[in-house]
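Appendix C: a fully annotated inverse folding record. The material below is reproduced so that readers can follow the format used throughout the book. The structure is listed first as tokens, followed by the designed sequence.
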């Protein structure tokens, strides 16, 4: 009598997809991503003019305090300088967060000192006292956003914007998603990203393709 066939191994279950990133995480990553590769071997800055900041704030209105009236926000040079200062602090702390990995090559040689970056973020976050406010739009999920304690008209819009960006960064850096933060080192990429699975090395498939092509060329030259 033939031996019973061994049961076939069940296929490995796919790794569960990571939970959607919180709004603070997405806002902070998007702020750092305004420093990007320009497509020609250099680095571009989406916040190089007040108009650039205006467009960015309006595009992220849903993640910012309602008192900011972000969809009507218009930046000036003072607001631009302040937001770029917050971004520089965030990128310096991102460089610390990815250790022992290398930081983004975009600004690895000119990062703010750690103490200065922390002070800048903490001071920006403290500039506008806020409380959490719940809203529940019809047909959508409830949302909690920080809103200023003082009347909106008594708050400088630049302070409100900087405080919101700084608090989002503090929430991300003190939270569990920080452990997944990586700098993408594919050719022509300077982005930070969240690692979604153990084998992920790059921020998106296109970067992985470029990195593999570059490695192939390097091996080919080595054999030549």
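Designed amino acids, in order:
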């Amino acid at each position: 009598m033939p031996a019973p066939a061994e049961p076939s191994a069940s296929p490995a279950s796919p790794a569960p997809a990571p939970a959607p990133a919180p709004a603070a995480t997405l806002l902070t990553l998007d702020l750092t991503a305004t420093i990007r590769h320009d497509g020609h071997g250099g680095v571009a800055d989406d916040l190089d003019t007040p108009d650039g900041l205006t467009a960015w704030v309006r595009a992220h209105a849903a993640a910012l305090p309602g008192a900011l009236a972000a969809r009507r926000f218009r930046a000036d040079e003072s607001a631009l300088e302040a937001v770029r200062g917050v971004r520089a602090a965030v990128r310096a702390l991102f460089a610390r967060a990815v250790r022992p990995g290398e930081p983004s090559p975009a600004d690895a040689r000119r990062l703010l000192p750690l103490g200065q970056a922390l002070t800048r973020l903490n001071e920006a976050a403290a500039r506008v006292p806020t409380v959490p406010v719940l809203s529940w739009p019809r047909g959508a999920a409830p949302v909690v956003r920080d809103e200023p304690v003082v009347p909106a008209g008594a708050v400088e819009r630049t302070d409100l914007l900087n405080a919101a960006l700084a608090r989002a960064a503090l929430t991300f850096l003190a939270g569990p998603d920080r452990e997944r933060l990586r700098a993408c080192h594919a050719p022509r990429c300077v982005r930070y990203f969240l690692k979604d699975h153990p084998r992920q090395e790059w921020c998106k498939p296109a970067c992985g393709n470029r990195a593999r092509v570059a490695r192939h060329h390097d091996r080919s030259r080595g054999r030549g």
